[in-house]
Amino acid sequence: MGSRRGATLSIDIGGSGLKMLVLDPEGIPVNDRRRVATPRPARPKPVLKALVDLMDAQPTFDRISVGFPGVVVDNAIVSAPNLDGEWTGFPLARELEVRTERMVRIANDADVAGLGVVDGDGVEMVLTLGTGMGSALFVDGKLVPNLELGHHPFHKSTSYEEYLGAVALKKVGTKRWSKRVIRVLQTIQPIWNPRRIYIGGGNAKKLKTELPANVAVVSNLAGLLGGVRLWEHSVHS
Ligand code: BGC
User: Fold this and answer.
1) Which residue's CA is minimally distant from atom 11 of ligand 1?
2) pLDDT tens digits, one per residue of 31-42
């Protein structure tokens, strides 16, 4: 692993896949995304090993950004609902720094995805549809970190994540699931009144419905593209 000045290795840790690519200083990918299945059980040690193995085939980079599927406060892991309880308090940044001799920044995965797509004008929200449901909120491009909408009860005691996550999609099929996404959008819109809502995550492409005018599906690469902006923002809870 050599060093390319200003290049950022961007990593997206997901419940089903670990993804990475290298971004140039402007945030443009310099290589194709690489992906491996997330080891199960998704404990810190095997995930860390899979990440380091995947890094060997990457172009050179100078620093590392990580989108993590849970609450992250000041680079420290607080929760990982779709991975494993062992992640709570796990020093992921330090472990990666020791193994790579690069500086590491970690934030919530939906927050990193948002950093890559918001245009910085007014209130913007991001929803990611994958194993879980991620959410992010931005005001004039400034992140409100760790919005955990996914675990809020949406209908009776069902949370947004239980209603829209990968298990629900498999159970009800794309047509009904797409209707559910619309229902969630209609619930969110009058609460936060975002100017734009961006939908990302691996399952966004499965949406079979017309979306409201202020809602856009973003590329599946979004989870990685915010890796450079993460270094331009101070993400404090
Ligand atoms: C976690 C969020 C994460 C989302 C998507 C949820 O279960 O609580 O922090 O953004 O999954 O990975």
Assistant:
1) 132
2) 999 999 999 999
